[in-house]
Amino acid sequence: MRYSLFVHMERWDEEVSHRQLFENLTELALMAEAGGFGTVWIGEHHAM
Questions:
Q1: What is the per-residue pLDDT for 15?
Q2: In angstroms, how far is the first alpha carbon of the chain from the final one?
Q3: What's the Cα-to-Cα distance from 43 to each of 1, 8, 15, 17, rounded to whole Å?
Q4: If you count Cβ atoms within 10 Å of the first and of the last residue's Cβ in the chain, which end, N or C, has fewer?
């Protein structure tokens, strides 16, 4: 069975920079890959 992850790069706290959000998303994608996930889907801004 193949697993994938669907995420949004939502900014809940204005204190968190866009760069930090992207770094967090990158870290999550790398963790998913290390855990055997095959794909990370990132939602488009208008679907949020």
A1: 93
A2: 28
A3: 23, 5, 22, 19
A4: N
Scan for tokens 């995420």, then name that residue: 7
Domain ranges of the chain: 4-47
Q: Collect the ranges in the chain with pLDDT lower than 50.
A: none
* pLDDT value for 44: 76
Query: What pTM, to 2 d.p., does this model score?
Result: 0.75
Q: What is the pLDDT of residues 5-18, one digit of tens each?
A: 998 878 788 999 98
Cβ atoms of 41 and 7 closer than 8 Å: yes
CA separation, residue 41 to residues 6, 9, 14, 15, 27 (Å): 5, 11, 24, 25, 14
